[in-house]
Amino acid sequence: MKLELRNIDKSFGENKVLKNVSISAEGGKAFGLLGRNGAGKTTTIRILMDVFPADKGEVLLDEKPIDYDKVQFGYLPEERGLYPKKKIIDQLVYFAELKGVSHAKAVSAVDYWLDRLGMTEYRNKRLDTLSKGNQQKIQLIPAVAHDPQIVILDEPFSGLDPVNAMLLKDVVKEVIRKGKIVFLSSHQMNYIEEFCDSIAIINGGQVVLEGDLRDIKRNYPRNRLVVRSLQNEKIAREYKGRFEWGENGEIIIILDTLEDKKRVMSELTETYDIDEIKVYEPSLNDIFVEYAENQI
Amino acid sequence: MKQFCKILKFELKHYLTNKIFIGVTLILVAVIAVVMFFPRIWGIFKKEDSTPDVGKYLPVMLVVSDAKENSEAVKEAFAAVFTGYEVKVADTDVEDVKDQIKSGEAECAFVLNSLTSYTYYVNNLSMYDNNTAIADEVLKSIYRINAMVQGGFTPEEASAILTAPIEGRIENLGIDQMQNFLYTYIMILALYMVILLYGQMVATNVATEKSSRAMELLITSAKPTSMMFGKVIATCFAGLLQIVVVFGSSILFFNINDDYWGDNPIVNSIFGMPIGLFVYMLIFFILGYLIYSFMFGAVGSTASKLEDINTSVTLIAMMFVVSFLVVIVSMSSGNVDTVLTKVCSYIPFTSPIAMFTRIAMSTVSIYEICASIAILIVSVIGIGVLSAKIYRVGVLLYGNKPKLGSIIKAVLKA
Q1: ipTM score here?
Q2: B86-97: average pLDDT
Q3: Helical residues (DSSP H) of A49-158, grouped into ranges
Q4: Which of B214, B217, B410 minimises the CB distance to A75?
């Protein structure tokens, strides 16, 4: 199963929100949709879900125009969106029913997910009586209870404590394992790195980077060496002006050319007491900052 | 369709489990119960203290006249008509009469100069005091009989001439406005209140979903047309249910207390409303409610915050108020077939009230009624579809209140 957005344009009035956006995601894999606030992520998601049509371009499933009557979407909106004053079981069953699930099946699916997320005791409570974190967990259920083929999770981890984040991670992994297409949008890059095989970075309504995350990292210029040593100060003096400090006190030496790598490595190991030396692999955070730093 | 039914069921459940909705309905029923049972309860209390009337105090009315024979005749005639008074002839002067009234010994006094001239003395002149009008009539007839007797008639002949009855019959070929006025008025007021009340409910309902962001999920789960129609029709059912409960309980209470109301003309006129008119009222309620609720729903979807609702719905409410006023004014003037009301009875936004009034208060051909209803039905569908489009665009607009122009543009594009 392959979902594709091809050459999507969208404007609101004079404001061009999306410009020629093309992305593709595959079943059984998670796709990370990244971008700064206002970059066009939510608009992309809404076009994908047919909330409004694109001005130009198409949405394809397995190379054919998507049939929204047949394909089921599950959506966890960033803003969240349930009725605060209604009973949890009632509204969750309602949302599953709206997606075409029969009443009995909806009840059993919702009960399964409440149990899976450890929320059964809140089944008959009103949503606004729950803590924020627990509301967050409840919010995941409408996105998965009707067993959709495509699951879109917008900032699913925000506001969760580490234990709940772990629980949610397991759920997301389970959904991916079931062969669903999972769209993950988040500003917490560590989660994207953990789940997503491929990503797209949107900046100013344009896709500025798209592809397999490992390839992206591999193709990133390998002209930096990470050095960990007890003699950091000495190394710093020697490489003055040609290095920067890493987050954990390591030294990141910037090579003039890739050919220098071997020479610098052996120089360092011979001269200093080196604990570790390796080519610097950029984190997704680095990549994101580089591509999204300057708003287009 | 399945989705629409789910939404309808969910929204209806929302009303039927809503404490305020249930509370308002029960309070209305309770108020009606109190009103309808009032004569029965009053009757019980009255019976309890129904002590014999003997020796019961009646206020005193004095009759003073220079001519002795006049004062006796007047006293007799007055005693016959002023049953609420003890009529006494007083042989005193005016000052004494005034003192008696001031001290409370007498309630009022007629001091006659002749049969055609008198002074009425009373301590406090009540707004509803019609004693002088009654006295005028009595004195006039005594004077005339006296005059005719002097002219040679016997008193019986004179009396017969003066009281000769006129036989007149009214054959109304159309509608009796007098009889219909009251319940038409009540019905229009009910239509007006119900449509505005439930319309506002729809607007608030939509805006609440938007501000709680439940909309984010709804809009991706259901079609806007299903959402809009489901919501509006569920509210319509809730409204109908409330009407049935309120009207049903009043009819029930009326029947229980039928004997106690006796021939009270107001109550009998209300409950004697022809069933056909009630059916028309239901039709116009449903269609009028639908057309306004769709508009209210669409407007509710463009409000970002619940507080914005009031300003947003004002325009629609104003439109409705104007049609209400046009009808009320024409009703009070007695002519509901003016050009203005005729035109209004075909414009879908005003026809629910205007056409209903014309049907109730005048004679309207069935073709005219059908045309008006047909225009209304087509407009309801058109406005419904249009409002679903506005809804689809409106619910996703957050932040500043969108301008009308930008909404229209977005709707045309959608």
Answers
A1: 0.77
A2: 86
A3: 88-98, 103-116, 132-144
A4: B217
